[in-house]
Amino acid sequence: MLGDYLSWADAVCLGVSRETALQLRRRFERLRRPGFAQVAVLQPLVCGTGTCLACALETSRGPRLICQEGPIFDLQILMQG
Questions:
Q1: What is the DSSP letter of 61?
Q2: CA-closest candidate to residue 36, choices 26, 25, 23
Q3: Tens digits of per-residue pLDDT, 31-56?
């Protein structure tokens, strides 16, 4: 069903497990481009300034601070491998 929407959708929002996200990534690899899919990473923010590094998130481009660089991230940098 998702494949029917991807040909015309500007964006797709899904709430799925990491395993399901990896399966979808492999299946629709040809449609991916920067900005096509974004992820909201939700977690409590301790300081909100990046000083404490409690919200550091490992990405394919190195660590990112959720409080400073997020909470919205491109799916391409979060999905490794």
A1: T
A2: 25
A3: 656 666 777 888 888 898 989 999 99
